[in-house]
From TrEMBL:
One Pfam family, short name: Peptidase_S10
Keyword terms of this UniProt record: Carboxypeptidase, Glycoprotein, Hydrolase, Protease, Signal
Domain of life: Bacteria
Descriptive protein name: Peptidase S10 serine carboxypeptidase
Length: 524
């Protein structure tokens, strides 16, 4: 999931930062050392300590002390006609600095198929984005054995969403480990005062995830298993950085990366400063318009979206980056943009041809307020007279999406036997606001060069990118543009487009299609 307030991210990464020396960013000196939290008996089974966890359990203070020990449960469910017995383990991993002092407890849930050959059974590591989003979205939305189901015909009704067996779970194809980033979900830094410096940044975050993955694989004897990373939204950037950190710091190469609605480069999302970003979001406006007008069919979608892409990068972008038109030329341009986007021409004119997808006057039309995360989804506009953008709620993140937090608490307690008084931190604006987008010696970390290196250094690495037609936060055209400009390994990047928004998996048909495509990707 992307930032609860996209504009806040844009502002934060545009801030002026003094260059930081490489050594200063290595706040842990070396990659953090992790040990597994000592487990105790769950109601269903005593949780044995995983092999390799030899250190004495640490004593925690504050909120970190409220997290329970690991819980192990056993399940048998049927997915797509196939009965699978599997073990679920919910617990925490302890991150330590180079002095051995605990710095965080990382919450995870692992699902492993019983009796499978670990040398051939893939294992996929999941994380969401934000920065600041917990992994409950992917867990209960896309891939886990249990999903959060919304009422048929009313996708914005989070109050009546129910937990149910996920018929499209990825479990038949892969073991799964869902990881919450420090400061999100139930992953807690032990010292909140130093968490910003230790965890809330592009490179620090990647180092912590890489070591967590290495430890889980090592203690569970899964170092020989095929390894995949799965990230949503900012999780696209995170997956690139984690793959790099795994290779360079943990000597682990990944077999593939699955990116769902990914952010791949922050500058490509900054419509306020980058005309290319404005061009790349335009096809998502057009797809949303076509869908709302019932003019986007499965048979015609590919051709229509291709035409929208070429218009956006052709006539539209060339006008946008040239001398601004005036008089009749300006009116013709604004009329053309209004026709493609379905937005009112006066709004297009006020935005000078480059509408901000998060602005209230762009999202509010005829008494309805449309979502940044799905241009076809709307609610009754609580402020149809117009308000500042900060007071304009998004139907997804401020509305039905919030149901994933309480639903995950219920699921963890009832199905996983993991009990805690702590609320699940689904979206942390504290983490989001503190995030450091700088790289090692760079004003802003750039992931596309890292992706190019990964594809060149690992000749079998494959990338799966899934985008929704109607996503205005991380538009599908940005993924296409990045993929088209990769010089090595372009044939190993698969682009998959689906009817849906940022959380494309909330639509049952799209969730099923995504699962089928991922199945093929994991079984080359």
């Amino acid at each position: 999931m992307f930032s609860p307030v996209l504009r806040a991210i844009r502002a934060s990464f545009r801030k002026s930062h003094a260059p930081v020396a490489f050594a200063a960013l290595l706040c842990l000196s070396t990659a953090p050392v992790l040990t597994h939290a000592a487990p105790t008996a769950a109601k269903t089974e005593a949780a044995p300590a995983p092999e390799g966890a030899k250190n004495a359990p640490p004593t925690f203070q504050g909120a970190a002390a409220l997290l329970p020990d690991d819980a192990v449960t056993h399940h048998t469910d049927t997915f797509a006609g196939r009965k699978i017995s599997y073990t679920a383990r919910a617990g925490t991993l302890v991150l330590r600095d180079d002095t051995g002092k605990p710095t965080a407890r990382m919450f995870y849930v692992a699902y492993t198929q019983d009796g499978a050959d670990p040398a051939h059974r893939p294992v996929s590591f999941f994380f969401n984005g934000g920065p600041g989003a917990g992994t409950a979205y992917l867990h209960l939305g896309a891939a886990g054995p249990t999903m959060l189901s919304f009422p048929s015909g009313n996708p914005t009704d989070g109050a009546n969403a129910k937990l149910a067996l996920n018929p499209d779970s990825w479990l038949p194809q892969t073991d799964m480990v869902f990881l919450d980033a420090p400061g999100t979900g139930w992953s807690l830094p032990t010292d909140p005062k130093t968490a910003d410096k230790t965890f809330y940044g592009v490179k620090q975050d990647a180092r912590a995830f890489a070591k967590t993955i290495q430890l889980w694989a090592s203690t569970n004897k899964r170092l020989a298993s095929p390894r995949y990373l799965v990230g949503e939204s900012y999780g696209g950037i995170r997956s690139i950085e984690v793959a790099e950190a795994l290779a360079q710091q943990q000597n682990l190469l990944v077999n593939g990366i699955v990116m769902i609605s990914p952010a791949l480069d922050m500058t490509l999302l900054d419509t306020a400063a980058n005309p290319l970003a404005s061009a790349l979001v335009l096809p998502s406006y057009e797809a949303s318009r076509l869908a709302l007008q019932h003019k986007l069919s499965p048979e015609s979608a590919a051709h229509q979206l291709d035409e929208a892409y070429h218009y956006a990068l052709g006539a539209y972008l060339s006008t946008l980056i040239n001398t601004p038109p005036t008089g009749d030329a300006a009116r013709d341009f604004y009329e053309d943009v209004a026709t493609h986007t379905g937005l009112p021409q006066d709004v297009i004119a006020k935005e000078r041809g480059a509408p901000d997808p998060g602005a209230h006057d762009v999202r509010s039309r005829e008494g309805r307020l449309y979502s940044l995360y799905d241009g076809t989804l709307s609610i009754a506009d609580p402020f149809p007279e117009g308000v500042s953008n900060s007071d304009s709620p998004d139907p997804v993140l401020a509305g039905f999406g919030r149901a994933y937090g309480s639903a995950f608490e219920q699921y963890a307690a009832t199905a996983l036997n993991f009990h805690t008084d702590l609320s699940y931190n689904l979206l942390s604006m504290k983490v989001n606001g503190a995030w450091d987008f700088r790289g090692d010696g760079e004003p802003i970390a750039r992931q596309i060069p890292v992706l190019r290196r990964l594809l060149a250094l690992n000749p079998t690495l494959r990338i799966f990118i899934a985008n929704g037609y109607y996503d205005l936060a991380c538009p599908f055209a940005s993924s296409r543009w990045v993929a088209e400009h990769i010089p090595v390994g372009r044939n190993r990047i698969g682009l998959h487009l689906y009817p849906g928004g940022h959380m494309l998996y909330t639509r049952p048909e799209t969730r099923a299609a995504l699962a089928q495509d991922v199945k093929a990707f994991l079984s080359p």
